Amino acid sequence: MRKTLNKPGLIHILNLLLSSPTPVLHRSARSLQTLAYEEFKSSPEKPHNHTAFILHGLLGSARNWRSFSRSLASTLPPSQWRMVMVDLRNHGKSAEIEGFLPPHDLENAAKDLANLVKTERWVWPDVVIGHSLGGKVALQFAQSCANGDYGDSVHFPKQLWVLDSVPGTVSRENSEGEVEKVLQTLQSLPSTIPSRKWLVDHMLKLGFSKSLSEWIGSNLKKSGEEQTWAFDLEGAIQMFNSYRETDYWPLLEHPPKGMEIAIVRAENSDRWDSDVIKQLESLAAKRVDETEGKVSVHVLPNAGHWVHVDNPKGLLEIVAPKVASLA
């Protein structure tokens, strides 16, 4: 399982986070085409009443969110909540599972979540929390639920958390240049890498920072005498393109009845222009119609895009009270 691409100054923090002791996790015996995931319960021996899905960002994985999920579960009513940290298609352990057919877009990534629920015979999640790419997968999941794409038995999430993910389209001019530069560089490399040291040295020669180069090297896995990527790069790039091209403003303008879509904007994030912020604030201030859900907007202070790393305590203070209210 991989970490989300990060700004160089934050890479060492992620490394510290991922080297911390692993919580008690439960892995599923799953069929061929369902997603890999990690499950955390504050009281594993007791039944749970509510479920939250947590979705990582581009080139990330479930393990990026272990620490936050554990903290969230510990603040909620005891033994009532289960956190399911999912590896999206082409990412983490899901990249090793066959059967995820193209197109690799947000619609199919969200459908994978529905297939996981159905295959495991779970109740539908009460809460879906998605960061960056995962935030838009969460929005698509809500949209598909509302469209009836998953059948009549579906129950909408009561809360949808979109963490520092712009809900509209992202033009190439305003796209994340750092992400694109890294993806282009990875595409130019051979499919097998002689060694992690070779990769780090190569990235340094291309002008990337040492911390970022070493983080990219941590995304390698052993393949015989060589190294290869632990994610499906081409599939992930297709998902990134779908992320940029898909618009969920209509969903935010008319959320499904009974659902709250909570947008968390990181105070220091560079992904929000003033027009988008005004549009969100206008939707949040709109009088709620009884036939529709609502939108709320939250600003996470002292944080850039990597919200769960920059200010996990602040993020918890925003998310936990609302999630606890569902119980």
TrEMBL record:
One Gene Ontology term of the molecular function aspect: hydrolase activity
Alphabetically ordered keywords of this record: Hydrolase
Domain (AB hydrolase-1) ranges: 54-316
UniProt cross-references to InterPro entries, sorted A to Z: AB_hydrolase_1, AB_hydrolase_fold, Serine_prot/Carboxylest_S33
Pfam families: Abhydrolase_6 (PF12697)
Protein name per the record: Alpha/beta-hydrolase superfamily protein
SUPFAM superfamilies: alpha/beta-Hydrolases
The family this protein is said to belong to: Belongs to the peptidase S33 family.
Species whose genome carries this gene: Forsythia ovata
